[in-house]
Design goal:
two-stranded antiparallel ribbon, four-stranded antiparallel β-sheet, 17% strand, alpha+beta, 41% helix, globular, 203 residues, 8 helices
Amino acid sequence: MTKSSKQLLEESKKRRSYREFLSQPVDIDIMKDCILTAGTAPSGADKQPWHFVVVTDNKTKIELRKKCEEVEKTFYEEKISKEWQKDLDKLNVDYQKPFLTQAPCLIVVFKEMYILNDKGEKEVNYYQTESVGIAIGMLINALRNAGYSSLTYTPSPMMFLRDFFNRPKGETPVMILAVGQADLNYQLPELKKKTLDEIATFI
């Protein structure tokens, strides 16, 4: 068991968020397996309050990128705080999101706040944010294990994604994962993870 945990740790340390991807298409069957893996996550009352929209169509990706950059341009020019911008400077990011059309696959994650039953009544879900967060973590790890890189992206604001993908009103968008083979020529920023003492307390 110790060996396997160490192995997973070392493999996980290699996971980085590449913002440039190769054009090589993803294996859709692998994507399905990874999403099913995410679907095994624990959830409040086992409601499984998640939905994954998998996008490989180039036209859709182009339209999505255009819409994302519209809202992001407003965010960066009018809404972002100086402190937030300073924290982002080390990542060298702005409102332009070329990875949305460069990545061969986008997985748009929604959390299901409630559904409408056959009588038109709301059936609520519990701990939606926590449950979906766990599922996303499992999805990222499954993609990494399958040899794919993924980049987490949260446009601000992102509610337009619900209408863009014609999802029910009971769903709220959480994240876009850009997925594919990373372009290893991309210059990764120098980042340092916190130590065990900084992130954990043992009693």
